[in-house]
Amino acid sequence: MATLNDTPGGSRLHIGIFGKTNSGKSSFINAFTKQNVSIVADEAGTTTDPVYKPMEIHPLGPCVIIDTAGFADASSLGESRMEKTRLAAEKSDIAVILISAQDAESGREKADFADEEEWYRIFKKKSTPVLFVISKSDLYPQSQIQNWIDEIARKTGEEAAAVSAVTGEGMENIKNALVRILPENYGESSITGSLAGEGDLVLLVMPQDIQAPKGRLILPQVQTLRELLDKKCLVMSVTTDKLTEALPMLSKPPKLIITDSQVFGYVYEHKPKESILTSFSVLFAAHKGDIGYYIEGARALEKLHADSRVLIAECCTHAPLSEDIGREKIPRMLRKRFGDTLQVDHVSGTDYPEDLSGYDLIIQCGACMFNRKYVMARIDRAKAQKVPMTNYGVVIACLTGILDQVAVP
Predict the structure, then answer these.
(1) For residue 152, which of 163, 166, 205, 350 sits 20 to 30 Å off, Cα-Cα?
(2) Torsion-angle region of residue 399: left (phi > 0), alpha (psi -120 to 50) or beta?
(3) Distance CA 252, CA 200 (A)
(4) Whole-number Å distance between alpha carbons of 304 and 361
(5) Which CATH class is domain 13-180?
(6) 32-36, 124-128, 165-169, 320-324, range with the lowest pLDDT
(7) Taking a C-beta distance cutoff of 8 angstroms, is the pair 366, 286 a contact?
């Protein structure tokens, strides 16, 4: 379960740096960020697992820079490294593909970059903006570099720029180019949407049970609270056991009540009739994923039976405790409804199967630790394999019988 002390990348712009081994990715990142983020060496394959570095970069704002293992890695661990690079690609909101000008001298005089073009096509299929960067530009005449830039534009129609990690030349141009290719409407997504606005009273019902980390709030609660304060809402917070005590103290019913999904039934039973009800998980289902697809996926519950197989996909890698919502509560609710022999598998973190065909339903957590790009990649995989997918909050509301009474942004 993500907490305030975690370092989430979910709300940051993910910029993936891709290229062949020794194309200068790590040197570029260190020069671009003005920090020693990545190890630099002349040996090929220095970067093994991707390096994720959260930071603020003007004028882009909060970002995660991802240094990846080079493609066309011929080492014994090359394929394993490429799996990690492909995962980084699924998380990247923007892809920077480095083409080494130094490599271009030996066999690339005509800007033959077949490997880079293959990755470019992968990103285009994912609708990921791409910026081509010719690295080590200090080694070549400007006319030669311009020829490569023109060739890239001719072959792909994309913008390209040249930089030198040694001199720093071209780095500001890279930042400006990244701003220009930002995904449309990036960063404008709201957690609560139109459910609450300035002056509205919002009540947060937050159980502080064994699952709640001592002295901290979980990340969805923190991010939702911050957005409500930014919206100038009037916010009150209570634990579940204080709900009925708190409501009579209010001069009017809250416009919106946001609760933990696992107490949906109790809060719905005791909330004022006028108050809109939703949960943190449902809000993040819309914020990070496809809420319409999740609601449609919940209808697959009607087709489950004792021999069905369900996958519960958590994004966190926390150690599950007693009464864990994904490991215990949801499986118990499913088996109570459909039979004790119903099979429930669990994955956590990025351990999401390539082959989903054996499952009758996938239940995804709120995904507060992942960015929307990666969550949508999971959804696209489920859609491609025609496997229904839903979300913790949506499935609990459905099993509780109140899904049609739960508000979505």
Answers:
(1) 166
(2) alpha
(3) 11
(4) 8
(5) alpha beta
(6) 320-324
(7) no
How does the average pLDDT of the chain come out, rounded? 86
> Which tokens is 226 given?
């911050």
Residue with tokens 């995962």: 87
Count of C-beta atoms within a 10 Å radius of residue 159: 16
The enclosing H or E element of 19 equals strand 13-19
Rounded (5°) CA angle 157-161-163 = 160
Residue 191 pLDDT: 95
Q: Name which of 104-118, 174-188, 334-348 the model is least confident about.
A: 104-118
CATH number of this structure's domain 193-283, picked from the four choices 3.30.1050.10, 3.30.1360.120, 3.40.50.11420, 3.40.50.300 = 3.40.50.11420
The strand pairing partners of 65, in sequence order, are: 15, 53
For residue 303, the model assigns a pLDDT of: 93
Please tell me the total number of residues recorded for the chain in this structure: 409
Q: How far apart are CA 258 and CA 272, in angstroms?
A: 13
Domain extent listing, the chain: 13-180, 193-283, 294-405
What is the C-alpha separation between 139 and 199, in angstroms, rounded? 60
